[in-house]
Amino acid sequence: MTQRPAIVLVRGDITEQRADAIVNAANTSLLGGGGVDGAIHRAGGPEILAACRALRASHYGKGLPTGQAVATTAGKLAADHVIHTPGPVWSREHDRGELLASCYRESLRVAMELGARTVAFPAISTGIYGWPMDDAARIAVRAVRKSAAPPVTEVRFVLFDEYAYEEFAAALRATTA
Ligand code: ADP
């Protein structure tokens, strides 16, 4: 029987992670932004933006749709690949949970295609895009549990602050209970 991939929580900065792939909470333009996106481009250097521009020119003239994922080089980062996925903006009126789950599922699909064993995620959509942390954590943990499979052996959630860490820990406890 194959071992299920481990889900690990760490507090920290995703740009500093050693992992086969790190995931970027991108926007549909693929051309950089604030938050995690800005941090990844700053730390990884111009190679990542050049790769994103090339992808826009070749495949995503109108941008990468929300909930999809695409990989580039990780430039100077310790990771081998950056997987870019635009999260949905949180809305009180519309339930966009399926789109947020899709970010995790599609990023893992791309990671598995690349042969990645370790994959690090930030808390997608919980910054500028306004998603409540408890709900985002529940969706993230559930989607990863469903989708992560070999060759992935470890999925790491990299949480920037104590609050995010606690909410992800609670979501993890709730789904293992
Ligand atoms: P989004 O636009 O998808 O909401 P953000 O980048 O604004 O994305 O924020 C997503 C989450 O990532 C937030 O919880 C934010 O605190 C966190 N974050 C910001 N910078 C980093 C970083 N360097 N490493 C890990 N998490 C980060």
UniProtKB/TrEMBL annotation:
Tell me the PROSITE patterns matching this sequence. Answer: MACRO (PS51154)
Which species is listed as the source?
Answer: Streptomyces qinzhouensis
CDD domains for the chain: Macro_OAADPr_deacetylase
Q: Which segments constitute the Macro domain? A: 1-176
Q: Which SUPFAM superfamilies match?
A: Macro domain-like (SSF52949)
Q: Would you say which domain of life the source belongs to? A: Bacteria
Record protein name field:
O-acetyl-ADP-ribose deacetylase
Q: What InterPro entries does this protein map onto?
A: Macro_dom, Macro_dom-like
Q: Name one Pfam family in it.
A: Macro
